[in-house]
# Entry
Amino acid sequence: MQNFDYMTPTRLIFGRNVIEKLPEVMAQFGRKILLTYGGGSIRKIGLYDRVKELLLDFDIIELSGIQPNPKYDPSVLDGVKLCKEHGIDVILAVGGGSVLDCSKAIAAGAKYDGDPWDLISYKVKAQEALPIVDIITLAATGSEYDCGGVISRIETNDKIGYVDTNLFPAVSFLDPTYTFTVSKKQTAAGCADAMNHIMEQYFCEDSTLLNDGFMEAGLKSLMVNAKKCLDDPEDYTARAEMMLTCTYGCNGIYALGNSMSGWPCHGMEHALSAYYDITHGEGLAIITPRWMKNILSEKTVDRFVKYGVNVFGIDSSLERFAIAEKAIQATYDFFKSIGIPMTLREVGIDESRINEMAHHVAVNEGLENAWAPLLEKDIAEIFTASL
Ligand code: NZQ
Ligand code: ZN
# Structure
């Protein structure tokens, strides 16, 4: 087992109607709130009105219109400006992972005098950030329990995962009923994203029985519950389990003591989303089985055997590579069964920019150091196989 240094300071408040505690929670941080949200889903589900009612005694400034794959310009820049102009004490992010990620970048930028891109691009380390409270409305990213945010900058085709321990939300409210209205497309994409977060930690050299069991259970839970949510969007138990399983996704708890994997699928997907603005979870689902095929080798096969036998119940007496291939096929079949378009062409990506994207990934994501190293030509092959 590898050494580790782990802390998640985020308070999770989980369950039906938990936002009744919102006023007492917000009061700990001050009276001036920047309320951030996306394109209107929180108004449709009545959450916007409820938040405003609960926070009548607070001074609220709003930043709306934060898009999926949140953009540096205008959202991060506008948010930072509002925080500085109004002397904001705390950010309240209400929505999906994009709203929360954008709010994290704003929280750091608000306490920095220079260009906030310096922080996101790791040119400068943030010294502090505004506190963040969130009400998450989509089960997917795990942003509510981690210190990362992913920000896109269109003019440079960058989509950067910005990680900083200053950016853990102080408090996350998780009420599964707010996810009842999440569309089938986003429910499936959220499931694929969270499954991939687990796989990115599972496929590594050095793991433990404990972590493997935790992650295999996480994958099974996501597969079972996503199907239940698609069949009955208001199945509270399924939405609740899915939400919590997603929440564990990116804060490292699934793989404490494991060796690094390099998060290759995320490295590659970020380029797809940066160049074509596609839905993150769909990009991951498309790439994942092709990546698995690409890295299957004598070095990696036993990990696939364990995954295939324990997650999909594949017959353990079969030959090792046969089990691995069945596991890869089962992964593909599951994503397809929940309605995800499983080719890049279906999400509007053709071969024209594959080499450019592969180069971008090779230069920026360090995947030559992944557990199963990927060079530029491997990345181009995975993209091509995904067409
Ligand atoms: O904008 P609104 O109107 O709110 O609509 C959103 C958006 O169109 C909608 N939605 C959210 N909650 C809803 C709802 N619709 C109906 N009912 C609800 N309750 O869903 C759409 C997608 O929202 P978005 O926030 O983009 O989805 P998600 O939570 O999957 O976030 C994706 C972003 O997170 C990043 C991704 O790269 C992507 O930019 N990630 C962040 C991570 C992190 N911070 O740890 C890790 C992940 O790997 C991921 O990269
Ligand atoms: Zn992800």
